[in-house]
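can u do me a favor
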């Protein structure tokens, strides 16, 4: 990561600012196709081994293949009792794929992997337009080889679509620097609006950087830039707002309850539990901690760990995202310093403001948010880190302040090596030799660079290759290890298994995991459920019981109380009316958390009240070791 191959005398160099329409070198297309092909292989390899990945979203995808209403609203079940606790945009993609190709692991996860490939291509394209082909290829490779990116682009959480749409917005804004800014800024706003429909307020973390570039770097007068900013804002509001309006105007008794909300409102979900509650705590989120090691929520690091400026480097987040974060920060500061006297519309500085602003704003919120902060959220930082690395390395190598530029490049490489040594030491049994090779090799390359790497002639390519090998070696190895393993459950983590966690809430050994697994493996129970023709084959408390049963039987299972059993849906009166109408056949007791551990409801939620009512009015039957109540039987 110290030099780029395009800097060698044998490789033609194209300065995108001086010759934006220059003929593309012959080596570019094969190099780009190779990058994208290898990324596709990496993200698609062994994809079926992930099983259903996150059962919670997989059950919603299955429901979307069975019911168009469930697809529209993101219902957890085909009977449309309650939605997942996110907007449904990511589910639309996976469920439509399931409708086209049949519901299964591959039809669900292949679109996620292809989103990763598309994100790599767009990061390449955005960086290439500013700093050239080599910088674009480097940025694309860095994104592809980020462990948390390889993890989440092979998973069914909303993060894959969120990141792709944010990258689309960044690419559109870079295109706006070339002219026809209004159209491209409008498209960027549309991308952010639909990103909001993937994961709510997290999509808006990049908007300060987008707005800054529009106001500072877009060609034209102040009024032209303000108009463009207004157009972008309107595009965001319209592309996200249409769905909010749809949900608000749709009769509440004719659609599923909005999971995670306290008043059946998607807007309240965005501003409460899954929005500002994540930032400030409350609304079903635990409070954060800045002065203790107990973490920001139940489960410690898997729910955020301690807040503070070092959070992105700590035990839970560091190996997900921070491999190249120190180098990116150094490169960002240096790049902004070297372009401080550039014209207002300078494209390099504009790109650094975009990707650097994205990086700093998102990292700051993630570092200090007091609510739930899962490690995999950090995938949102990956495109920004990748782009800053690609741009800064290229611009420093060709920098006019020759000695200082080389010193900064060497510092980036050595700092990366030292930090990667520390990260690899957190799993000392895994490839123990790698940290020493990366450290020693990086020091040697940095020394050669400082001693006169610019005078190596054709050997500069060898130096560049060595810099890339040692600079990216650790993150690449960790990414390959991530792909080689199987990851599932609500809170996946990348890399090799560690003794300090990584199974996640609800995974094997986690809360609710064994119970839900027993029910879904209960052959006798599954036969009973498959023979029903009710709106809901059964009801049970919480998604950790409901989701595996849905997936193993293909039937509609009502998740009382939503994800953690604490949502007030259905109310006791609603549930009683469903039972009276013969719409729920069985009630399965004893396996959900039952108290809203991961939601806004608390112990007085619907799950507790309904369970008590069922126990008082119906007789339990043991079905293969599972306590089941037949709600169609009269006592």
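np, heres the sequence
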């Amino acid at each position: 990561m110290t030099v780029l191959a395009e800097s060698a005398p044998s490789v033609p160099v194209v300065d995108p600012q001086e010759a934006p329409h220059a003929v593309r070198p012959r080596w570019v297309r094969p190099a780009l196709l190779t990058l994208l092909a290898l990324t596709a292989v990496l993200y698609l390899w062994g994809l079926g081994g992930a099983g259903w990945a996150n059962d919670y979203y997989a059950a919603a995808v299955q429901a979307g293949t069975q019911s168009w209403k469930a697809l529209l609203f993101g219902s957890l079940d085909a009977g449309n009792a309650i939605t997942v606790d996110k907007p449904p945009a990511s589910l639309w993609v996976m469920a439509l794929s399931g409708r086209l190709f049949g519901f299964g692991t591959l039809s669900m996860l292949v679109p996620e992997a292809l989103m990763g490939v598309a994100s790599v291509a767009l990061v390449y394209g955005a960086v290439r337009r500013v700093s050239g082909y080599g910088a674009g290829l480097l940025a694309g490779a860095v994104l592809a080889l980020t462990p948390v990116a390889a993890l989440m682009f092979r998973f069914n959480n909303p993060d894959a679509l969120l990141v792709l749409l944010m990258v689309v917005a960044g690419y559109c804004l870079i295109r706006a620097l070339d002219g026809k800014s209004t159209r491209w800024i409008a498209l960027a706003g549309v991308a952010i609006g639909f990103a909001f429909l993937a994961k709510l307020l997290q999509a808006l973390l990049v908007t300060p950087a987008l707005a800054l570039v529009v106001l500072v770097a877009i060609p034209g007068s102040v009024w032209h830039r303000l108009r463009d900013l207004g157009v972008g804002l309107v595009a965001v509001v319209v592309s996200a707002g249409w769905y909010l309006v749809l949900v608000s105007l749709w009769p509440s008794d004719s659609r599923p309850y909005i999971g995670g909300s306290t008043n059946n409102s998607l807007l309240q979900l965005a501003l409460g539990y899954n929005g500002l509650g994540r930032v400030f705590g409350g609304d079903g989120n635990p409070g954060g901690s800045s002065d203790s090691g107990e973490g920001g929520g139940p489960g410690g690091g898997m729910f955020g760990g301690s807040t503070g400026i070092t959070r992105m480097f700590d035990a839970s987040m560091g190996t997900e995202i921070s491999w190249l974060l120190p180098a990116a920060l150094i490169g960002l500061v240096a790049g902004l310093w070297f372009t401080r006297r550039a014209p207002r519309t300078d494209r390099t500085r504009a790109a650094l403001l975009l990707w650097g602003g994205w990086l700093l704003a998102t990292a700051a919120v993630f570092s200090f948010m007091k609510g739930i902060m899962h490690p995999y959220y950090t995938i949102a930082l990956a495109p920004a880190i990748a782009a800053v690395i690609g741009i800064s390395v290229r611009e420093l190598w060709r920098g006019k302040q020759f000695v200082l530029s080389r010193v900064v490049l060497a510092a980036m490489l050595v700092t990366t090596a030292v930090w990667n040594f520390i990260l690899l030491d957190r799993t000392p049994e895994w490839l123990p030799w790698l940290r020493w090779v990366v450290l020693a090799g990086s020091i040697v390359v940095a020394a050669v660079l400082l001693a006169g790497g610019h005078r190596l002639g054709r050997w500069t390519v060898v130096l560049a290759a060595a810099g890339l090998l040692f600079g990216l070696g650790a993150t690449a190895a960790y990414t390959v290890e991530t792909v080689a393993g199987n990851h599932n459950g609500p809170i996946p983590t990348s890399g090799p298994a560690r003794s300090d966690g990584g199974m996640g809430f609800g995974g094997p050994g986690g809360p609710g995991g064994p119970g839900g697994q027993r029910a879904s493996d209960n052959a006798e129970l599954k036969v009973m459920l498959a023979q029903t023709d009710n709106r809901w084959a059964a009801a049970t408390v919480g998604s950790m019981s409901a989701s595996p049963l849905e997936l193993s039987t293909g039937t509609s299972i009502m998740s009382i109380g939503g994800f953690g059993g604490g949502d007030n849906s259905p109310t006791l009166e609603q549930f009683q009316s469903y039972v009276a109408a013969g719409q729920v056949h069985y009630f399965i007791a004893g396996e959900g958390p039952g108290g809203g551990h991961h939601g806004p409801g608390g112990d007085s939620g619907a799950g507790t009240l309904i369970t008590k009512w069922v126990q008082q009015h119906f007789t339990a039957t043991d079905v293969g070791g599972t306590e089941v109540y037949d709600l169609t039987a009269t006592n």
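Residues 25 and 282 are 55 Å apart (CA to CA). hope that helps!!
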